[in-house]
Write a structure and sequence with these properties.
Blueprint (H helix, E strand, L loop, with lengths): L2 H9 L3 H16 L33 H11 L5 H4 L9 H7 L4 H32 L7 H25 L1
Amino acid sequence: MTRVEKLKERTGLTEDQLREMVRDVMKQYLTIDLDPDTQNEVSTSAGAPGYMTPKAFDGPGQNHKSFRKKNGEQFGLKTIRDLEEKPKIHENAYNQYKNSEGTVKQKIGTSIRNINKSLNEMDALLKMNLKLKKEQAGSDLWKRTGNHLTKIEARLVHMANKVRELKS
């Protein structure tokens, strides 16, 4: 049973009513009186050093990521991984793709359209980076970046051969 469900059971209020009550209480406590006549000193924790151990207050055996995910889900939040819907390629991918709805022409046409969109995005990124490099004349690339560009170039040549094979 989640904390919200426990509160709803104990108070008999709806979730919206509980949220409104919390907002009202937060507004009351977060209102700061900055009038110098009524306030002699202000104390903040800005000068205190932070803890260098982010999981210092987790319980024994508590998984920090699952704890955050569970608490986030209670309030209707999703992790970035949940929002990204990338097709996963694994051993059964071809069989699932082959047996999915649609004709062979439709499947190939849709895939080619998606590949074309990805290539357009890649082309735009390459144009931006090429322009950036030209503006910053004399700027060298990192060694690893040069290696990655060589590998990308080889992959593109390999993919070009696959495109020729698909066309024939």
